[in-house]
Structure formats: structure tokens, C-alpha cells
Amino acid sequence: MPRTSTFALGNATLPYVMRLANQGFIEAVRNDRALAGGVQTYRHRLTCAPVAETFGMDYVPLANLQ
Q1: Beta bridge partners of 41
Q2: How many separate domains does the chain show?
Q3: Does residue 1 surpass a pLDDT of 80?
Q4: Which residues are CB-contacts of 6 (< 8 A; sequence separation ≥ 6)?
């Protein structure tokens, strides 16, 4: 099972890795909502509202930082 699960994980994440490599972080996140949803921090700012709320920290939407 470890071998097949490694292949499955690689197949699931490779498109995102390729997008990041080909477009760069900013363009990839702008063009892919799912990828943007996985960004928790950017430039030392917390971009995930639930995490910010849980820990009483400031939240800045990712769109405001680009």
C-alpha cells in the first residue's frame, strides 16, 4: 500500500506543482482558486480567516496582498 499511496499523492499534487513552476506563485494563485484556498500565510501575514480567529490574530485576505 505505501507504494500505491505514494503514486496517488504524486498524481494528485503534480498538476499544482507544475502550475507553480510554470506560472510562479502569484499567477498560479490568481488563476487557480483551489490553489489559492490552500495558502495559509503570505509575506508574513495570515491569510486564513478561521486560523486567525482561533488564535486571535490579524487576518488579511490573500487578494489584498498580491
Answers
A1: 46
A2: 1
A3: no
A4: none
